[in-house]
Fold this protein.
Amino acid sequence: MDELFDRLFPICRSITGPGLRETLSILSEYLPLEQLGEPTGSSVFDWTIPKEWRIREAWVKGPDGSTIIDFKKSNLHVLNYSIPVNRKMGLDELKEHLYSLPHMPEAIPYVTSYYKERWGFCLPHRQLEQLEPGTYHAYIDSELADGELNFGHAILPGESNKEILISTYVCHPSLANNELSGPVTAAFLYRRLAAWTKRRFTYRFVFVPETIGSITYLHRFGKHLKEKLHTGLVLTCLGGAQHRLSYKMSRRGNVPTDRLVQHLFRLQALQGDIRGFTPINGSDERQYCSPGFNLPVGQMSRMVYNCYPGYHNSFDTKETMTIEALQQSVDELEQLLRAIELDGYYVNQNPYGEVKLDKHDLYPDLNSPLNGVYSSNNVADNRVQLDRILVMLNYCDGEHSLLDIADKCGCSILQLEPIVRILKEKQLLQGPYLEPRNEMIE
């Protein structure tokens, strides 16, 4: 993960252009990414694919001829999508094209102008205040040209054609938590899931430039997602040492990720907090959850956007994000996906009366009240397994989901995984099914 981060961080990304394609190509070394494109000028719902931005060089020279701002030192120094300029001007005119953060005088802000042509530079406010009157030379070697908007996806097949979406964005330059935490985590989550011996669902990993990219993806694949999507997650801002997971609910408020994340957080199987859905801010979940699609998609973060000092400025570094936090995010997201795989509706194959568990080596061979401990054949655990088996078999009627049953057991759904495995091995249980099944097996 550290190596991938270091390869991606220096690239000048935007919503189009060579930096975006280079990023997708590097990610393709880590997962089998199919790269796609939509030509300049194409209509995607209410949007139009803009011209492709290409930048080669940019700087500002002061009155003494020295370079005071240099794109080579930081991608953030240039207003993203700047048109070309090669002009000499006074300080007052130059300041109309300079951007800084007065409340963070040492930081370089991240500023964009995708849909209105302008040029500009970004610099620390401290440096801006020290500029002296005189003639300055502003130079940006860039172009806006017909090209395409690029994006990619990787499909990891499962037993079912019902899909789980994992979406993240690849368009911000030189930002760690607010850019690279998503694609780096997604790439290594893909590798983790690819190593599973069995997958119930098909997984769709999507890498797009934020907003216009997900809108373009929905324009091409939205109908398919409406038919096939079981649930999904947008991954963003997943770094931050000492930060817990933070989940933003879907627009529907009751999709599988909503219910399972709340369950796992409540029982502290995962550590995290819940945020309600809002279209006011966030990431691409706003597009997936737009009313025409209303897909079952939530958003997972850790050090949440707009809530930390480095948001959209040069203080968003690997040191504040930490690779260790990304590793923890992969681990925890894998646990959530295991819970999604496990949940569903199961059917007891012997529903008339209790199953004679000792016949299946599932009941204690010594039942004694002397010390409150029930010993049994290799499952002596103070009745925990036995009690969960009894609850499972009673409520696995095709009408109660495994999540419902976990709540009745007072345990995490993940703690029922060994019970499901045992009962299926004993041919006492069938499932899981995506929808309730009312019929009992005769």
In short: The chain is about 30% helix and 25% strand. The CA atoms of residues 262 and 274 lie 7 Å apart. The longest strand covers residues 135-145.
